[in-house]
Input
Amino acid sequence: MEKLDKTDLSILSVLQQNAALPVAEIAPQVNLSITPCWRRIQRLEREGYIRNRVALLDHNKLNVGVTVFVAIKTHDHSIEWLEKFRNTVQQIPEILSMYRLSGSVDYLLHLVLPDIAAYDKVYKQLIAEVSFQEVSSMFSMEEMKATTTIPLNYYGLL
Output
């Protein structure tokens, strides 16, 4: 894997803002011609710096405007329990992300749903498959910041 340079980081920065931009529009923004820019993008994808290119959808327009964070504690920290939990979560499309944490909470889930009744169905599906010590749900009142843009200044060049 090649070390990234400032041009690579500039390409990543542009793509984080709009991954649908054609290479012909990206190249001048990063001071490259089209072919070298395309090659760099291909390398960044091949080396895993670009994991995927996606469209960000509007939750409210698609009737999943309720955001819920679920904090989970468990007594069972076995690999078998974790795999069963992970597999259960993978089957539930309303769960956008799952994190294993340090501290007083073991796992944090991020869900989007149309309403509390839909959350109750997901909750019942979870507890039917996996046992928990404690489940605490927090419903978002307002989204104050949401971004998919990661800071690139920690790579050491910017």
